[in-house]
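Incident log, support desk, overnight shift.

02:14 A customer reports that sequence design results differ from what the structure should imply. Their input is reproduced verbatim below. On-call engineer (initials T.W.) acknowledged and began investigating.
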């Protein structure tokens, strides 16, 4: 592909010289790009004022190691994971279709598309088995899903659209994913701007926050909860603004390297956090939030955070499922306002 582009350029140059026309700027060539699992691609030079940046055929690798080749800018993206909604919002794009449940919830949140999020075409089925018929009907250029959840869809989507699977476990992974999708969609400038906004916000928060509060994120659907450790996605944000001592002590407790481990109230009492953020997941209409279920245990009331009224149920579709830079920015804003209300008042 690179050789063919060079040949075309050479023919055009010879023709231009024969016609004695002035030459414009010559186009450079770049190495193949890697996706969210690899180092960040170099940013392209900004196009001259009044010109459009030429899209170069691009090859990326997703988090499963699958190679995805794109020869024209991706315009229609079907989202079967919330991370997809996050990145499209950052790039100023809209999904061509949405899976239901949490994906629809985040799309309809005010920080994303608001009420317009209710109008995007629906992809039926379950989270782990979205409807292939609906995906085909939406005629996407790209489908974005979650590694470990949607891997089996790749064969079914063959000949329909490439499938990009991601699973960021650090905010740097989310940044690389943003840049990669920016490359595939021809939205490199939008990706660079979103990256800068996020990093500037995180740096300013880290410099201003006193980090004298011990924070904790837990998640679950019942009393069998798990802790997001400092190597989990949310933990990589929290350790920048707070005392966040939670870690994976035994590799077997975190076999997939996601940075989350099962916990008990007895173990929680050892560190005794000042503030607890709770991501509750409900699988039935009448399910109580996790904090209310844990409150039925006598041990819960012994925690400092409980005694001081510092247990906060958060928006799990954004905090837990969003995974992208916009969701992490929302997490950052909301957690700072709770941890240090005098320094970071709610807007």
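02:41 Re-run completed on a clean worker. Output:
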């Amino acid at each position: 592909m690179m050789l063919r582009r060079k040949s075309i350029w050479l023919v055009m140059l010879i023709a231009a010289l024969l016609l004695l026309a002035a030459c414009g700027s010559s186009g450079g060539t770049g190495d193949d790009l890697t996706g969210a699992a690899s180092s960040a691609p170099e940013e392209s030079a900004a196009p001259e004022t009044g010109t459009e940046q030429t899209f170069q055929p691009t090859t990326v690798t997703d988090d499963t190691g699958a190679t995805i080749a794109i020869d024209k800018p991706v315009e229609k993206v079907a989202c079967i994971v919330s991370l997809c909604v996050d990145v499209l919002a950052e790039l100023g794009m809209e999904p061509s279709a949405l899976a239901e449940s949490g994906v629809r919830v985040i799309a309809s949140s005010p920080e994303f598309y608001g009420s317009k999020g209710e109008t995007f075409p629906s992809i039926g089925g379950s989270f782990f088995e979205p409807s292939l018929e609906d995906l085909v009907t939406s005629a996407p250029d790209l489908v974005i899903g979650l590694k470990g959840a949607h891997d089996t869809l790749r064969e079914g989507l063959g000949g329909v659209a490439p499938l990009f699977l991601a699973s960021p476990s650090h905010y740097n992974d989310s940044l690389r994913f943003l840049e990669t999708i920016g490359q595939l969609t021809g939205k490199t400038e939008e990706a660079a701007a979103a990256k800068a906004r996020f990093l500037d916000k995180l740096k300013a928060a880290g410099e201003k926050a006193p980090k004298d509060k011990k924070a904790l994120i837990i998640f679950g659907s019942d009393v069998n909860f798990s802790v997001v450790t400092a190597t989990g996605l949310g933990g990589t944000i929290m350790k920048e603004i707070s005392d966040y001592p939670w870690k994976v002590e035994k590799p077997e407790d975190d076999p997939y390297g996601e940075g989350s481990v099962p916990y008990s109230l007895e173990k929680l009492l050892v560190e005794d956090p000042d503030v607890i953020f709770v991501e509750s997941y409900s699988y039935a209409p009448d399910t109580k939030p996790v904090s209310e279920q844990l409150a039925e245990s006598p041990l819960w009331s012994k925690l400092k955070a409980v005694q001081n009224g510092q247990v906060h149920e958060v928006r799990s579709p954004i905090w837990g499922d969003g995974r992208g830079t916009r969701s992490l920015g929302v997490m950052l804003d909301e957690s700072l306002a709770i941890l240090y209300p005098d320094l970071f008042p709610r807007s």
